[in-house]
Specification:
It is a single chain. This protein has no helices and 9 strands. Strand 4 (about 40-50) and strand 5 (about 55-60) form a beta hairpin. Strands 1, 3, 6, 7 and 9 form a 5-stranded antiparallel sheet that branches. A 4-stranded antiparallel sheet has the order 2-8-4-5, with no helix packed on it. About 0% of the residues lie in helices and about 60% in strands. It has about 120 residues and is an all-beta fold.
Amino acid sequence: MDAEIIINQQGPLPITTTITTASDGPAMLVVAGSVWSQSANNEIGINVVLEGERVGVASIYSNGASTHRAVVPAYIPITLDKQWPSPTEPPTYTVELVASTPATVSDSNDSFVVVLHV
């Protein structure tokens, strides 16, 4: 299985990238990062959106306020099944990371990583 880092950057959310891959069929996105909340006792996290559809979430429960928290990394199975635009041009996919709840906050002190395994 090949792995490609498709996002490796500081926040804030949302973060959007486009990937081009010749692979088709089953694949996996591994998502990690950090977020925080302005108030205590909130579920916070990162929604993973592929081609406009939420495919998974990496989250954590934050007991305290104003503390950056690493989310529990998420392993998200996906299927790459777009038609090729031409015989020599593989399809592109849009991947977005967005806040999973209204309590989720991110800024330039948060980091995000997404790895595509095909």
